[in-house]
Amino acid sequence: MLFENEYLGNVYENLEKRNFGEKEFLQAASEVFASLECVLKRYPALEKEGVFERLVEPERFIQFRVPWVDDSGNIRVNRGFRVEFNSAVGPYKGGLRFHPTVNASVIKFLGFEQVFKNALTGLPMGGGKGGSDFNPKGKSDGEVMRFCQSFMAELFRHIGPNTDVPAGDIGVGAREIGYLFGYYKKLTNSFTGVLTGKGLSYGGSLFRTQATGYGLCYYVQNMLKILKGTSLEGKTVLVSGSGNVAIYAAVKATELGAKVVAMSDSNGYIYDKDGVRLDVVKNIKLQRRGRIREYVDEVKTATYKDNFKDIWAIPCDVALACATQNELDEKSAELLIKNGVCCVGEGANMPSTANAVDMFLKAGVAFGPGKAANAGGVACSGLEMSQNSMRYSWTFDEVEAKIKDIMNNIFEKGYAASKEYGEPGNLVLGSNIAGFSKVCEAMLAQGIV
Ligand code: NDP
Ligand code: 2IT
Question: Measured in whole angstroms, how far is the alpha carbon of residue 57 from the centre of its chain?
Fold first, then answer.
């Protein structure tokens, strides 16, 4: 039995049977269940309310065909998904991921995590997620546009500014959101805040581009200050990935006085002992959609190595995992701990394996779980929804100040719950409990729906 509590064990066993082989979804659910065992002990009535059975069953799961025509005239078929996981706290909210590894398990794990993350922000957002196994890499703008239009030709029936509000995630950035928004507008003849992460010229929020990465650094600053009595100033930092989250995490960490010495993509990583030049990275990744290895063509003193996982072998004080799920395993955790890491922040969703998380917690490393540490992005999306509803926009500084506040609060809530439940500083436990408490209260108030 994975869980001491028999009821929880049975719910989980049933979940395994009904979602056979969906390892990412089961991984995310078992982590949350493990954190909530102590809550169930304190409030045994939750069993009668069927809260746990309801939590792990998505309210709606949509899968659809996405046919499109490539530049050579070939017909291609991809699979589209949207999971509308839980709307107890607000309209479904969460990103779309376009990546060849996308499947039902990945979408469900992301949607499940999103429910708790969104609750932690304190904004009225439920949890959802979606995407496709479409690979935007190497596709022309025309191909990406035709794919997005075909994707939206089905998705538009299920979403709406008060129902379900998608945004970006891996492989979905400003270009894709633009094409998706344009087609939604054409199909419905309405200009609404149905997507977030929009361009600034048509209703996007200032600071959304920076929000996840900067938010991660604000969260990490809280961890370092409260749990370790220090700050990012003078720290050596590793940042995995080199997409939206990674780049802006590296920018903010550098601004706060840290030295980012390595970044990666799915092929390999660069090491620059003098501190990664972010103007060069931005130019390669954001302007040219290039590969991280191109960095060493411009910065001759830096080195490039294949195998992105080896980035974790570089000695550092702080590790920010900003690429993808399960990128940081037991072996990597062991190396980081051996090399004296004091803080790990998850910019990505579930980048650390379950064993890696346990090792960090046991070793006394300050560990910031994704659903808390990377919530700055969706929090800013929530503020984009507010601005769209008001038909008004806040300045960059106004949005940044609100996000900083939200990230400080998320840390506080998780830390307070970790103390209340007897494991001070265990932010996995604390954040799961704090997120759950809000969702649970909203679910109980609304009856069996
Ligand atoms: P991007 O598409 O901008 O960048 C993704 C980065 O991760 C790229 O460097 C990519 O490398 C790397 N990557 C993707 N898949 C893999 C893989 N299988 N193995 C190794 N590296 C991989 O996405 P984001 O920066 O937006 O997202 C990164 C993470 O942050 C994801 O986990 C996402 O869910 C999470 N997140 C994103 C938020 C946002 O606002 N964008 C908010 C909260 C969390 P390559 O180019 O080689 O594919
Ligand atoms: O994982 C995430 O929180 C996101 N990809 C952002 C979701 C959003 O709705 O902005």
Answer: 20
Same domain, 64 and 51: no
Whether 129 is a known active-site residue: answer yes
C-alpha 322 to ligand 2 mean position (Å): 13
pTM of the prediction?
A: 0.98
- The answer to whether residue 362 is domain-embedded is yes
Ordered mean pLDDT values, 10 residues apiece, the chain (449 residues):
91 98 98 98 96 98 98 98 99 98 98 99 98 98 98 98 98 98 98 98 98 99 98 98 98 98 98 98 96 98 96 98 98 98 99 98 98 99 98 98 98 98 98 98 97
CA angle 239/244/247 to nearest 5° reads 40
Q: What does the alpha-carbon distance between residue 280 and residue 191 come to, in Å, rounded to a whole number?
A: 37
Q: Which ligand is nearest to the CA of 117?
A: 2
Question: Residue 89: what pLDDT?
Answer: 98
Q: Report CA(97)–ligand 2 centroid distance (Å).
A: 10
Strands annotated E in 173-302: 236-240, 259-264, 268-271
* Three-class secondary structure assignment of 280-345: HHHHHHHHCCCCHHHHHHHCCCCEEEECHHHHHHCCCCEEEECCCCCCECHHHHHHHHHCCCCEEE
Phi then psi for residue 395, to 5 deg, are -75, 165
Which domain-ending residue is among 373, 397, 421? 373
Which of these, 221, 182, 222, lies nearest to 414 by C-alpha position?
A: 222
- What is the chain's length? 449
How far apart CA 270 and CA 145 sit, in angstroms, is 32
- Both 249 and 343 in one domain: the answer is yes
DSSP conformation class of 225? I
Domain count for the chain: 3
Separation between Cα atoms, residue 68 and residue 113, nearest integer Å = 31
Q: Whose CA is nearest to atom 4 of ligand 1?
A: 243
Domain extent, residue 112, equals 60-190
| Residue type (1 letter), 109 | F
pLDDT at 2: 82
How many C-beta neighbours within 10 Å does residue 272 have?
21
What gap in Å lies between CA 193 and CA 288, rounded to an integer?
29
CATH for 155: 3.40.50.10860
